[in-house]
Amino acid sequence: MARNVLVLAEIRNGALRPVSFECIAAGRTVAEGGTVTAALIGEGAGFADDLIHRGADKVVTVTGDGLESYTPDGWVGALQSVCLELKPDVVFLGHTGIGRDLAPRFAMRNTAGMVSDVTDLKLEGDQILFTRPVYAGKAFVTQIVKQGLIVATIRPNNLAALPVDSVRSGNVSEMAAPALDLRTVIKEIVRNTAGGVDLTSAKIVVSGGRGVKSAEGFKPLRELAVVLGAAVGASRAAADAGYCDYAMQVGQTGKTVTPDLYIACGISGAIQHLAGMSASKVIVAINKDPEAPIFKVADYGIVGDLFEVVPLLTQEFKTLLGR
Amino acid sequence: MEILVLLKQTFDTEAKVTVKDGRILDDDATLVINPYDEYAVEEGLKLREAGGGTVTVVSVGGDRVEEALRRALAMGADEAALIEAPAGADEFTTASLLAAWARGKQFDIVLAGNVSVDTGAGQTALRFAEAMNLPHAAAALKLEVAGNKATVHRDAEGDTEVVEVPLPALITAQQGLNEPRYPSVPGIMKAKRKSIARVGAAELGVDAPARTEVTSVFQAQQNRRNTIIKGSPAEQAKQLTELLRGEAKVI
Ligand SMILES: Cc1cc2nc3c(=O)[nH]c(=O)nc-3n(C[C@H](O)[C@H](O)[C@H](O)COP(=O)(O)OP(=O)(O)OC[C@H]3O[C@@H](n4cnc5c(N)ncnc54)[C@H](O)[C@@H]3O)c2cc1C
Question: Of A40, A176, B43, B68, whose Cβ has the fewest other Cβ atoms within 10 Å?
């Protein structure tokens, strides 16, 4: 069953987000002969080739007043214009800050069914079968959209992107969005992000909790992260205590990460924290308390003082990786 | 100021989740107000305390949801309504019912949780805003209302966006917005005497059959190795690196 797929591609800090490539790959899986079109809103015409090399057939860039930065009215309106033009059967977005904010409104505007935070998908007969976590990752459901337009947000780092094919070519077009009344106005953006490796797409995450005890206490974790090419995350308690930025928070209220390796240092393993990392492929816990719940979800546990263990681990990895 | 809070009853997050015969066993589970919705209730009460008006809480669900609404009343909400949930309702259905109920009523601000901790979908409140043609600001960490506009500090993947939105608008609450109060004893007594308006789905004349269907439910696979590495810190560090490379193959 051929399906036309529309993917909202996102740019962050001057680069396409990996989840956009993952959405295109998902689009290819379900297109079955249909067309996969990636839409870029506001900026990014220069990224069209990258999207095509990752599997998109077409790229459409949408420009218009006030579309340079995200606002719900502006971007829902812009995506809707593309949708009216292309009449897709399926729309995929990343389960990112923007995707989460935009997709439900967009789905409602089209009286469409939507599946949020998809971690896997496959074709079954005439249906796309989506898998998603519920109850903070304690269970999973499979879900279908029964009729009409299908909208889904895809959790970053779960579906494989297609390899770069630099000889692929495709059609790139431009579209002007109609003038829209932007009711929600952005006054200011306070960047709390320290830069470095993007947490949600990192292959390895080293996280610290209240057990790191101070902002200074994150230093050994950062050193380990540098050796591993990892991103640094944190628990809510560490952010609340001011040891690090909220941008680093992993969990239900913070970011959801699904790296190959998650190293939790001085984190007890509260359910709200697990909600953000329990789908990681391999979990390591370093904690002084042998009874800490984090050990129940860990593949490898070290009962000990993180300030002793982490620097030794950094040394071992330096030797192993020759860095 | 007329304040509406959209509220969902959920599992207590600490509860054990068991899947049996393709469904989640919830008959004996402790049910609570979805924590993010509780922040919304608290924020509504604070707005009323600052500027007067009423706080109405509304939910879509079964009989047990009365408990959650009763708790919101005990916290201080003025009125509550419970809309019966049709079988198989999804976010599209729920948002459509809420919108049909709210249409024609006057609200200056609508508050809701950013996400519910059971399904984690985060759709209903934003769908409601769309259905009502209200602007929205999601994941609020701070809310200030002055005249007919709200200034919201919102969480955008860890960055803070300061946005201004004209009222009426929908604002969803992120953790950090406030600390919900506990119901007081007089509050609990007062709530007992209040009636909760029951609304049948048919009364609203909404035809919004679910667009989605859950086809299976399964327990998360917890095939964790649970290996505790023994020895001196130096031995532990060495063993761990070797296991991560040799056994887990992630390095
Ligand atoms: C609605 C809601 C949403 C929430 N969202 C999130 C969220 O998104 N993310 C999140 O993380 N939390 C969230 N929480 C908070 C969560 O419930 C926990 O409070 C929090 O995760 C605890 O953080 P922690 O593990 O760092 O701290 P603690 O629970 O205090 O644990 C610290 C751990 O460090 C260990 N330790 C101390 N010193 C050392 C040392 N020298 N070496 C090794 N180990 C040491 C201790 O044994 C302990 O296990 C939320 C809560 C609510 C109610």
Answer: A176
